[in-house]
Amino acid sequence: MKKIIVVGSGAGGGTITRELASKGIDVTLFEKGPSTKIGNAYEHYENLDVGVELIQTSCIAGTTTVTAGNAVRTCQKYLKNMGIDLEDDFNEIEGEMGVTTLPDTHFGNGTNIIMDRAKSLGFNTQKMPKFIDPKTCKPCGKCAFGCPRDSKWTSKEYVGEALDQGAKVIANTEITELITVNGEIKGVKSNDKEFLADMVVISAGSIETPRLLRRAGIDAGNNLFVDTFVTVGGILKGIKFNSEVQMNGLITLDDLIMAPHYSGLLYNKLEKYGASENDILGIMIKIADEGSGKVREDYIEKYSTAKDVSLLAKGSAAAGVILKESGVDPNTLTSTIARGAHPGGTAAIGDVVDKNLETEISGLFVADASVFPKAPGAPPVLTIVALAKRLARYIENEL
Ligand SMILES: Cc1cc2nc3c(=O)[nH]c(=O)nc-3n(C[C@H](O)[C@H](O)[C@H](O)COP(=O)(O)OP(=O)(O)OC[C@H]3O[C@@H](n4cnc5c(N)ncnc54)[C@H](O)[C@@H]3O)c2cc1C
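# flavin-adenine dinucleotide complex -> structure
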């Protein structure tokens, strides 16, 4: 029987492993990080300061462990225009993950005030669709630490199903190199240990995937975007917004999105004015940044372009107006540094991989956020999962 190796267990890797295992295919998943309780995922953040702060986690289920549970069909039209139709995959995924907006019981005062004032000011507002189960979720504001009640979808669910279907899952093992012969993939190496396979899928995330590809001679690692965001906030005494479900509402402008969001970085700045963590109300501004970054073996470069900065300024001004109308003391308004939680673009479709996500090395595929051709400017997990499902069907047909 043909063997497939998957590298990385996040949104892309967890999905492809489960899909291949469910088709009876011999699949082995390697994950650099350890297995962890979802509630302890915050211990596995591996953030990088590269001009913007890049946020990611390394453990079984990767960065899906710390999402806000936002479920959006990012880039669907764009990919369809490229000949990649994900409609059926999205429908299937939304059913499997139970995507829905949360009931009123899961909206706190801070979110309600922001969304109400934004609507009155004429902004386009809606509830955020979530892959969070309202039956087990008790709002606590800890999604980004790893849900203490395991109430949101993470790819750990898919990895568990893959194990049940006979997949091998090997944690704490970093893949360091790809084995290729005459333009064909033959397996992977973890330091001096070799693991042979007929096909390999790299899902190591948008920073490590291009590094592995580059070591195999592929010109990956260009066009890095991160969906740059800042959180603007200020003091509203006693609002207790920090223990609400975060990003439960969505405010859309033409070229950026905003969402109610608490950040501990705001507390660090507002503490000196006598604020406790219970006294802060904030809004995240997220943009589809230009692919100005670069990943190389020994450095990562990512700066904000003039266009990125002007969009962040436009969003921050709008957020300031909404927060003031919401009762925040305008003299206390401040912003976090620029950060990025959706790195992608470093092995883009049409550049490094073809529409079947295959590289120039035969049998070597990529299934993670690296393959996005442009910044989504919105939560990417559903689209990564949809692309991985589509790739699993392609691989099954090729075997
Ligand atoms: C705080 C936060 C909140 C977010 N909220 C949302 C949200 O609400 N909705 C949404 O859609 N998106 C959200 N995202 C983004 C989303 O989590 C990521 O876009 C997504 O997980 C990326 O999937 P991926 O498969 O590319 O990489 P990852 O999920 O990062 O997985 C990559 C995996 O590969 C492993 N790995 C790396 N190198 C190697 C190697 N050499 N060998 C073996 N294993 C390796 C890593 O340890 C990691 O486990 C959020 C991100 C953050 C940081």
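# post-check
The pocket of flavin-adenine dinucleotide is lined by residues 7-13, 30-33, 55-56, 58, 62-64, 66-70, 144, 174-175, 203-206, 208, 341-342, 368-369, 379-381, 384 (CB under 6 Å).
The domain at 104-145+224-340 is CATH 3.30.560.10 (Glucose Oxidase; domain 3).
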